[in-house]
Design a protein that fits this description.
Oligomer: single chain
Largest sheet: 5 strands, parallel
Radius of gyration: 22 Å
Order of helices and strands: EEHEHHHEEEHEHEHEHHHHHHHHH
Number of strands: 9
Shape: globular
Number of helices: 16
Structural class: alpha/beta
CATH architecture of the largest domain: 3-Layer(aba) Sandwich
Distance between the termini: 62 Å
C-alpha cells in the first residue's frame, strides 16, 4: 500500500507491528482527545523532520479506522499501548495516505502533491464507511502541497465528512497556508532524546554501533531525528559531513579552495535526493548547530558568542529560503551552494583580523 516510506519506527515482535517511542506528552494529549470523544476534524503534527510524526499519525489512524478494534472495545478504553503499538496486522481501507508520488520513469518523487491527488482524496473520503470506524487522511508533508492543492484541501476542511479525521504532518509550519493552519488543532513535536534514539536503534543497529555513532558526534548532528541518524551509518557521508563542518570551523576565514576540493570528490552530495544528505542540507544542519552553541568556533569569545548565534540563526533562515527558491526554479545546485558559502563568508567578514 505505501511504497518508499521512511517512518520512524522500531520493529516489535507483534507480527511486525510498529512500536513508537518518545513524545510522551503528545501521545497523552491525543489519547485524552480520543477517550473523551473530542477528536477534531484536523490535527496538525508539526516539528523537526524524521522524529516520528508520520509514524504516530499512522498508529492513530490504525486504532481509529479499525472496525474490528472498535467492535470489541469502545474509544473510552483505548490505552497508550494501542497508540504506540496498535494491534492491527492488516491495512485498513479507511486509511488514506497523501504524499508526493513516485515516478517510476524518472526514478524520483514528483515535485509536489498536486490538486489531482487532493481530488482523489476527496473522492475516497466521500464514500460512506461500512462500519463505525473513522476514516483517517494523512497528508505528509503539508508543505509539499502546491497552491491549487492547498486550496482544494481547504475546501474539504471547511466542510469535512462525518467521522473523518485529517492529520497534516509538517516539518515547517510557516509554509502552510494560513487558512489551513487556522482550521487545525496544533500538536507540536520536539526532537527525540538520546534514550529514545537508543531504544529505536535497537531494532536495526548492531551491538555497539550506537556507541560508535555517538563517538562520531552523530547524536548531536542528527538533531534528535532517526532519519538523520541513519545517514551516519554511511562512512562516505561521515567524511563529507566532517569536511563541511571543517569549512565552518575555519570561520571567520572561509576557505573557498578547500570547499572546491571537497565538492570535487563528493559531487553526489550536491543534488542528493535525500535533502538531509545534500550539501545544502548538511550546511543548514551545521548552521543550526552553530546557532544552538553545539559548535565552537576558534575565535569565539564571551563578547561575540551571542552575536555569532544570532548571525547563524539569520543565515539558517536566509539559506533555507535560498534552497527553497533554487528547487522552485531548478537552479544548478553547485552554484547555489557556493552562493550560500559566499553569504556565510560575508556575514563573518567583520571578525577577520586586518
Amino acid at each position: 500500500m505505501i511504497e518508499k516510506q521512511n517512518h520512524t519506527l522500531a520493529t516489535s515482535s507483534n507480527g511486525g507491528a510498529s512500536f513508537l517511542f518518545g513524545h510522551k506528552e503528545q501521545v497523552a494529549f491525543i489519547l485524552n482527545c480520543i477517550k473523551t470523544n473530542q477528536i477534531p476534524n484536523a490535527w496538525l503534527f508539526h516539528g523537526p523532520a524524521g522524529i516520528g510524526k508520520a509514524s504516530l499519525a499512522l498508529n492513530v489512524a490504525k486504532a481509529l479506522s479499525s472496525g474490528g478494534f472498535l467492535k470489541n472495545r469502545s474509544l473510552s478504553h483505548i490505552s497508550e499501548k494501542d497508540i504506540r503499538d496498535p494491534y492491527v496486522s492488516t491495512w485498513s481501507n479507511n486509511i488514506f495516505f497523501c504524499k508526493r508520488k513516485w515516478d517510476d520513469k524518472k526514478k524520483l518523487f514528483q515535485k509536489n502533491i498536486s490538486i489531482d491527488d487532493i481530488r482523489e482524496l476527496r473522492r475516497k473520503v466521500s464514500l460512506s464507511s461500512t462500519d463505525n470506524s473513522y476514516k483517517v487522511c494523512i497528508v505528509d508533508t503539508t508543505e509539499d502541497l502546491n497552491l491549487s492543492a492547498s486550496n482544494s484541501l481547504l475546501k474539504i476542511l471547511e466542510e469535512p465528512p462525518k467521522k473523518t479525521l485529517f492529520i497534516l504532518v509538517s516539518n515547517n509550519k510557516q509554509s502552510i497556508l494560513p487558512t489551513i493552519f487556522s482550521r487545525c488543532q496544533k500538536i507540536a513535536f520536539q526532537r527525540l532524546s538520546e534514550g529514545d534514539l537508543r531504544n529505536i536503534s535497537m531494532g536495526f543497529l548492531k551491538e555497539n554501533q550506537f556507541e560508535q555513532l555517538k563517538k562520531y558526534g552523530a547524536l548531536t548532528s542528527c538533531e534528535g531525528s532517526v532519519r538523520k541518524l541513519l545517514n551516519f551509518l554511511d562512512k562516505d557521508f561521515i567524511e563529507f559531513f566532517n569536511g563541511m563542518k571543517g569549512l565552518l570551523l575555519d570561520l571567520p576565514n572561509l576557505d573557498r579552495r578547500k570547499a572546491i576540493k571537497l565538492l570535487a570528490v563528493n559531487k553526489k552530495y550536491l543534488a542528493y535526493d535525500d535533502p538531509d544528505k545534500s550539501s545544502l542540507g548538511v550546511l543548514l544542519r551545521l548552521l543550526a548547530s552553530l546557532a544552538k552553541n553545539e559548535i565552537d568556533l576558534v575565535f569565539n569569545s564571551k563578547l561575540v558568542t551571542e552575536e555569532i548565534h544570532l548571525i547563524a540563526a539569520h543565515l539558517y533562515a536566509q539559506i533555507s529560503l535560498l534552497r527553497h527558491q533554487s528547487m522552485e526554479y531548478n537552479i544548478d545546485a553547485k552554484k547555489v551552494l557556493f552562493l550560500a558559502l559566499n553569504i556565510i563568508d560575508l556575514a563573518f567578514a567583520k571578525y577577520r583580523k586586518e
